[in-house]
UniProtKB/TrEMBL annotation:
<feature type="domain" description="Serine aminopeptidase S33">
    <location>
        <begin position="43"/>
        <end position="155"/>
    </location>
</feature>
<dbReference type="Pfam" id="PF12146">
    <property type="entry name" value="Hydrolase_4"/>
</dbReference>
<dbReference type="InterPro" id="IPR050261">
    <property type="entry name" value="FrsA_esterase"/>
</dbReference>
<feature type="signal peptide">
    <location>
        <begin position="1"/>
        <end position="20"/>
    </location>
</feature>
<dbReference type="InterPro" id="IPR029058">
    <property type="entry name" value="AB_hydrolase_fold"/>
</dbReference>
<keyword id="KW-0732">Signal</keyword>
<dbReference type="InterPro" id="IPR022742">
    <property type="entry name" value="Hydrolase_4"/>
</dbReference>
<protein>
    <recommendedName>
        <fullName>Serine aminopeptidase S33 domain-containing protein</fullName>
    </recommendedName>
</protein>
């Protein structure tokens, strides 16, 4: 198990609350913030939730609460540069003022840290569930590629792609290393490359518990949770069956 560089539980909102604000310290000292949805200490299942790049970790609030209610530890983080994980150097909201070349470089510099930042979040959950515990990961849109990178280097019990388009390189990574992992794929049929790559991923998925939830329309990620009031329950139920 990799060493957690630094992590600190900051504030429990209330003693009876299922939600706590956390901050994790990255290798370079940067602070990654997120929400930890508390589950009993005896729980041996966990889910790491990675948001899409036009939103932040709060998109998983309802899913996190329901996972905790099902005795599953859940953690959602803000990627470096998003939500509460911002600094003078890393702030996606300020990139629109940059030239195309500057914006591209700023994005590359920022996102290059994401795999190691996500690893620290995984280590937080691994510390909660122990070596024998099971950890799943869900990645929405850009979060899906981070889920693949995490799965390539760690023991992942279940993986979900939520409106997450994958390029050929990532599909090859999934096929070669993760296709035997239970996989939940969610996409809308008019969501361009997101849907076509979702179809490819499902064809490559080999585990019998893998599932493809296809929707009519153009919704991408979080809006699907509003479109289908049963989707949150479906996601939570599926993960519960894989890791509990």
């Amino acid at each position: 198990m990799k060493i957690i560089h630094s992590l600190m539980l900051i504030t429990a909102l209330a003693s009876t609350s299922a939600l706590a604000n956390i901050q994790l310290t990255a290798k370079d000292g940067f602070t990654i913030k997120g929400e930890y949805f508390l589950s009993p200490s005896t729980s041996k299942g966990a889910v790491l939730m990675l948001h899409q790049c036009n939103y932040n970790q709060s998109m998983y609030n309802n899913i996190g609460k329901q996972l905790a209610n099902n005795h599953i530890h859940a953690l959602s983080i803000d990627f470096r540069g998003f939500g509460e994980s911002k600094s003078v150097k890393y702030d996606v909201s300020k990139m629109s003022t940059l030239s195309t070349q500057q914006r591209r470089k700023a994005w590359q510099d920022m996102s290059a840290h994401w795999p190691s930042d996500v690893q620290i979040a995984y280590d937080f959950l691994r510390n909660k569930v122990g070596v024998q515990g099971k950890i799943g990961v869900i990645g929405a849109s850009c979060g899906g590629s981070q889920a693949i990178e995490l799965g390539m280097n760690n023991q992942i019990a279940a993986i979900s792609f939520f409106s997450s388009a994958q390029n050929e390189k990532n599909i090859e990574k999934y096929t070669g290393s993760l296709s035997n992992t239970p996989t939940l794929i969610i996409a809308a049929d008019e969501d361009g490359r997101t849907y076509t790559s979702a179809q490819t991923l499902f064809v490559e998925a080999k585990h019998s518990n893998s599932k493809f939830l296809a929707y009519k329309g153009k919704e991408h990620g979080y809006p699907l949770l509003d479109k289908d009031s049963n989707l949150t329950d479906a996601i939570v139920t599926w993960f519960s069956h894989q890791i509990n």
